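[STRUCTURE TOKENS]
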Amino acid sequence: MFPQKNPIVAPVDSKTYPLGEKPEQSSNNHALALVALSHSTLEQRLYSAMLSAGDENGTQSFTARRLMNLTGIRSLSTIRRGLEGLLTKFSIERNKKTNGGAVRELGACYTAFAPEQIIARRHERGMSSQEGQEGHHAFERAIARVAENKHLSRREAQVALCCVEGLTNAEIGNRLDVSEQTVKFHLRHIFVKFGVKRRAELISRLLM
């Protein structure tokens, strides 16, 4: 038998992680749900830990080693990979300080933003994603119904909402960085879990 790697295990706060593998999905907050869906599982674990441990303004700084203690993730390289993903999605920011008039990076210190701030930061930078439809009431209903289905995995939730946006399988694959065949695989499971047989029925079930 080969030794198994330690799983990534961390307590998940349902207030900051409304969608995904956690059965207790208690929040339907729109911005929170969209941000959670935009993160990978690792990224959301880190973001959830930062949001839970920080103050209400999100001003507390976190080092990679502190996040290891907060999340229970033992690999520093795994933590850093997740932080890089959060940086590219504008969910967190590296702290800066002034040294004799010059601004320099503080390397391993990060601040997490609230979900509404993240969406605003992405819009300012022209980032096109699911967050762009936060004012659409039908889309809000779709998010709520995806969140209410406790049998969906995170990836299935992402694929379902991409369908609501009208994306093709190829476009969903490009957005989620998976193959078109993988998208079809997830769709088959989604159809079963929603009790539908085709994409149009799924979209209707989520929007109506």
Remarks:
- The longest strand covers residues 102-112.
